[in-house]
Amino acid sequence: MSFARSLLLRLRRAREIYEGVYVAPYRSAIHREYLNQRDLFLLLAFTDLLGIPNPMAYYALELYPEVIDQFHEWHRRMGMPQAPEGGFRCC
Amino acid sequence: MNRLFEKEIVFFGGKGGVGKTTLAAAFALRGAERGERTLLVSTDPAHSTSDILETELGPEPRSVATDFWALELDPEQEATRYIDDVKQRIAVTTAPRMLEEVERQIDIVRISPGSQEAALFERFTRIIEGSAGHYRRIVFDTAPTGQTLRLLSLPELLNAWMSGLIGRRKKLNALSRMWRNVAGAAAGGRSTGSDPVLTALEERKERFHRARRILTDARKTAFAFVVVPERLPILETERAVGILARHRIPVGAIFVNRVLPRGVQSDFMRRRGVRESQYLENIERSLGTYPIYQVPLLDRDVVGVTALRRLTIAKVARVGDGEDRR
To answer: Which positions in chain A touch B178 (Cβ < 8 Å)?
Structure first.
């Protein structure tokens, strides 16, 4: 095994340890924050789905195609196998 | 009306029944007869403009006289047009099993308050942007005061809302990138290209911005109020002028319609005339910073191009006044 190759292997291992120790704990926190922000955006853009008057419901229409999947993912994650009443009945 | 003829976009507004449609048509016609290609746009679902011009108007411009074109918008039809467009785009991207539900949701928005106004406003901006260079002037005959004020203040209000959403969306995208960086394969293989939601929001914001720029450009745009010399229309107009000023939408003229003719010999008319001159003074006092024009009460309805042409629109002279201040 050449010196360079062995060095590369050691570096890779070092990175895995570093990630395991430092990044992994943040990873779930970042993911949670990402999902929270995504839900918040969904709520703000489509308040009318929850019965809150939305001054730009009309303009939010053009965002529907992009966020329907996220709505579906949201209600699954919130422990609702079926979409809640009033919103998209996506399933 | 020289100052008003300098404008490219003139909105006519006022309380219901004061004669907005008649004066908008008369003003548009006078412009056309100066050889300036003019488009009159009405939003009245009752088709009053068609009735006045004795021409069947629709959503596309029709020629009424030389250099004089007119169209009539139906707010409901405009909303439907936009919503059908959204449905079409959704049909491409949505799983068929969801499509029916999504369309149901969209139909709810169609009838929700504000949709027709939004559709109308959208069409206004498209007419203005689409006819640049085509017409010398576009005259909008708007709905009664309250609705019109909401319509014109819409871009400002929605702009703030839209900015908020855009800020959120950017933050979300930054988080999404961060998540992808730390998650590697766990984030799923999807690449982060441009975000279609952010693009749509920013396009929409830009549209509002352009609309707002047009509305507040005092060199090109003016709002003309029509009022009759009676208490309630005067009060409403004073309030409306104040609201427009707050939104920095320039007011170009006040038209006082149905002013009683002088020298009518009857007690009733004389008493009415005394009351009226008080109201005319009120108008002069509260709205005198704008050019004021008077249009007489006639013994017949104003119907047809010839009658519109004959309508006298006289500027109220003031001491030390040149043509149209402000």
So the answer is: 30, 34
Tell me the pLDDT tens digit for each residue of B169-212: 999 999 988 888 877 656 665 555 788 889 989 988 888 888 88
- For B71, list phi and psi in degrees, rounded to 5: -145, 155
Inter-residue contact B53 to B64 (CB < 8 Å)? yes
Is residue B200 within 8 angstroms of chain A, CB to CB? yes
Q: pTM for the full model?
A: 0.80
Interface test mutation site (partner A, options B168, B177, B202, max chain A beta carbons within 10 A)? B168
Cβ(B165)–Cβ(A55) under 8 Å? no
What DSSP assignment string belongs to B91-157?
HHHS-HHHHHHHHHHHHHHHHSTTHHHHHHHHHHHHHHHHTBTTBSEEEEEPPPHHHHHHHHHHHHH
Give the pLDDT confidence of B126-152 residue by residue, as tens digits: 898 888 789 999 999 987 777 777 777
CB-CB under 8 Å, A65 with B169: no
Overall CATH class of domain B36-143: alpha beta
Among B102, B186, B200, whose Cβ lies nearest the Cβ of A88?
B102
* Pick among 3.30.70.640, 3.40.50.300, 3.50.50.60, 3.30.479.20: CATH of B222-326: 3.40.50.300
